[in-house]
Amino acid sequence: MNRSASRGLLRTSLAFLGAAAVSIALSTTASAAVPAGVPHDTPAGERADAAHGCAVVWFDLGETLVHTAENSSTSYMPGAATYLRELRERDIEVGLITNVPSSWGETDAERAAALKKEVDKTWKGSTPFAWKDFGDRILTPRTEAERKPAPVLWERAKADANGCRLVYEAETADETDVAASLGYVAYQTGQPSRPAYLPARVIEHLAHGS
C-alpha cells in the first residue's frame, strides 16, 4: 500500500474509532476483556478462543509512553501511567515496538534488558516504569536495517498475534501509517482535540469485533 492510501486508511479508521468512542462513553456498561471463568494469566491465543476475541496494544516508547527531558532524565508522558494501569485492570495485553541499537544484544531479551537499564538509570519520579506489564513483548531491531519505519518489527508482532486484534500507538504519523498499512488499528498519540491515547473501552470492543 502506498503512503497516500495508508494515510486514507488511517483517517478512515480514526473516524470510525471516534464514533465508537462516543458510543461506548454513553454506554452504562462495557464489555469485559476476559469473560468470567477465564484466568487472567491465560495466554493471548487461548484467551482469543475463550473470549471469542482479544487485543494486544503495541506502543512506541520514546515520546509516546516515556519523555526524555533536556537534562536527559526520563519520565512518563502525561497520562501514560494512568493509561497503562487502566489497560492492566482490563486485562488488555501490551507490548513495545521500539528502536534501540542492534548492537545492544543478540536477542530481543538481551536488547530489552539493555533498554530497561538505560531508561531506569535516568528515571525521574516515584513510580517506576511498568516493565512487568510488557513481559517478553518487547520487540527491537536485530539489524540496523530493521529499524522503524521499516515494517519488520510490526510484521514480527503480527506473525505472533494468535488471532488477536492488533493496535499500535505512537506519536509519529510515519509509524502509524506503516502499522495501518499492515492491518493494525493505528492511533497517533498526543493529538489535539482527541484523547491522548486510544480509549481502553474502544480497544475492548475492537477485541470482540464490535
Structural features, described:
It is a single chain. This protein is α/β, with parallel strands linked by helices. It is 40% helix and 13% strand. It has one domain: Rossmann fold, CATH 3.40.50.1000. It contains 8 helices and 7 strands. The longest helix has 24 residues, at 3-26. The two termini are 25 Å apart. The model is unreliable at 1-42 and 45-52 (pLDDT under 50). Residues 1-32 form the signal peptide. This is Hydrolase. InterPro entries: HAD-like_sf, HAD_sf, TAT_signal.
> What count of structural domains?
1
Given as residue ranges, the uncertain stretches (5+ residues, pLDDT < 50) are: 1-42, 45-52
Our estimate of the beta-strand percent is: 5-15%
How would a crystallographer describe the biggest sheet? 5 strands, parallel
Query: What is the fold named in CATH at topology level?
Result: Rossmann fold
> How many strand segments?
7
**Measured distance between first and last alpha carbons:** 25 Å
CATH class: Alpha Beta
The Cα radius of gyration reads 17 Å
Structural class: alpha/beta
Cross-sheet strand order for the largest sheet: 5-4-1-6-7
Overall spatial form: globular
Q: SSE order in H/E notation?
A: HHEEEHEHHEHEHEH
Compute the number of helices. 8
CATH homologous superfamily caption: HAD superfamily/HAD-like
Helix content: 40-55%
- Average pLDDT, all residues: 82
Tell me what the CATH architecture is: 3-Layer(aba) Sandwich
What is the gist of this entry?
The protein is of the alpha/beta class and 210 residues long. 40% of the residues lie in helices and 13% in strands. Strand 6 (165-170), helix 7 (173-181) and strand 7 (185-188) form a beta-alpha-beta unit.
